[in-house]
């Protein structure tokens, strides 16, 4: 007689792929580090985002899958799974709830000669409604950037745009192109303040203790 | 920094994550991209690579289309539809 275990399996609980899209989330963490680049010294700000409960009300299209890969037609298009009326089936995005995504980092070039490269970081501050004071430099009005800290942003409700990011593994980077191993992950490419979202206590965003 | 696509903004509205007012505010701030007026059309090269076909009036930004431009567009659409196809660009096949 087989021994009964506490482990369970729900056959209706099917794996769902992550689709590129814009999802409600909260900023979970922020870190910054100084690095040297060809354009001079820079500070890189990285953030993590935890997908909010409200994602469950968003739907995503369902495509035919072959294991973890999309099935494609001869033109390379994904094949939709349709219902009886010929419409593409959709499923809710509850599988994304609590999922944590990272961004590619925002560079802040501290040398004024590379100031034009700070646009992306300025736009991040602008999108998160972090105010920057104006200053006068050589007769020009410029924005004085600030370095965001955890206390400024962690817990803030945001809308994150998640996109597939392909990279070559560091172990195969030096090899000829046909021998390089390519992998993909999902990264946050755009952040906007989710004005109708509710900020949450940063404590709620901390990882659970694994025991 | 990129923008939220019209499709994503619509999905957020439908799901109740964003209200109509919030979307309008985001559009006004330039955080939502503008809707595409035409469908992207593709064809394959001799090496099997997908390329996008487009007609572009260089220098024509913020100008009004002339009668001849409209005729060209009409003929262009017919010929492009004959030789090209639309495709799912979310997951490209190389």
Can you give a write-up of this model?
The complex is a heterodimer of chains A (211) and B (94). By secondary structure, chain A is mainly beta. Chain A has one domain (21-60, 88-200). Chain A has 3 helices and 12 strands. In chain A, the strands form 4 sheets. Chain A has a 5-stranded mixed β-barrel with strand order 1-2-7-12-11. Chain A has a two-stranded antiparallel ribbon with strand order 3-6. A two-stranded antiparallel sheet of chain A has the order 4-5. In chain A, strand 4 and strand 5 (69-70) form a beta hairpin. The longest helix of chain A is centred in the middle third of the chain and has 9 residues, at 119-127. Chain A is globular, with a radius of gyration of 22 Å. Chain A starts with 20 loop residues before the first strand and ends in a 6-residue tail after the last helix. The mean pLDDT of chain A is 90. Chain B is mostly helical and 94 residues long. Chain B has 2 domains: 1-35, no CATH class; 41-83, no CATH class. A two-stranded antiparallel ribbon of chain B has the order 1-2. Chain B is extended, with a radius of gyration of 17 Å. The mean pLDDT of chain B is 87. The A-B interface holds A 19-22, 24, 54, 57-59, 70, 72, 75-78, 120, 123-124, 127, 159, 161, 164, 189-192, 194-197 and B 1-5, 8-9, 11-12, 14-19, 22, 25-26, 31, 50, 85, 87-88, 90-93.
Main pleated sheet of chain B: 2 strands, antiparallel
CA distance, first residue to last residue of chain A: 32 Å
Kindly name the structural category of chain B: mainly alpha
Could you tell me the radius of gyration of chain A in angstroms? 22 Å
């Amino acid at each position: 007689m087989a021994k009964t275990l506490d482990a369970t399996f729900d056959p209706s609980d099917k794996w769902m792929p992550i689709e590129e899209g814009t999802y409600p989330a909260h900023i979970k963490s922020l870190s910054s580090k100084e690095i040297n680049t060809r354009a001079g010294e820079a500070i890189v700000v990285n953030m993590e985002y935890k997908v909010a409960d409200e994602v469950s009300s968003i739907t995503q299209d369902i495509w035919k899958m072959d294991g973890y890969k999309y099935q494609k037609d001869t033109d390379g298009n994904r094949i939709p799974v349709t219902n009886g009326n010929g419409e593409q089936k959709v499923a809710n995005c509850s599988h994304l709830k609590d999922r944590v995504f990272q961004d590619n980092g925002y560079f802040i070039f501290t040398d004024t000669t590379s100031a034009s490269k700070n646009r992306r970081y300025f736009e991040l501050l602008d999108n998160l409604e972090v105010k920057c004071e104006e200053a006068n430099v050589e007769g020009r009005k410029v924005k004085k950037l600030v370095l965001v800290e955890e206390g400024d942003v962690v817990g803030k409700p945001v809308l994150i745009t998640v996109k597939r990011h392909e990279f070559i593994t560091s172990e195969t980077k030096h090899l000829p192109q046909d021998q390089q191993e390519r992998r993909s992950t999902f990264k946050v490419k755009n952040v906007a303040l989710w004005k109708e979202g509710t900020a949450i206590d940063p404590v709620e965003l901390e990882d659970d203790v694994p025991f | 920094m990129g923008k939220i696509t019209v499709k994503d903004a619509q999905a957020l509205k439908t799901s109740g994550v964003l209200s109509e007012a919030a979307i309008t505010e985001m559009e006004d701030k330039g955080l939502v991209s503008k809707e595409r007026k035409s469908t992207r059309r593709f064809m394959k090269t001799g090496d099997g690579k997908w390329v996008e076909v487009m007609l572009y009036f260089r220098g024509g930004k913020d100008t009004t289309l002339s009668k001849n431009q409209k005729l060209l567009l009409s003929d262009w659409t017919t010929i492009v539809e004959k030789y090209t196809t639309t495709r799912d660009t979310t997951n490209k096949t190389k």
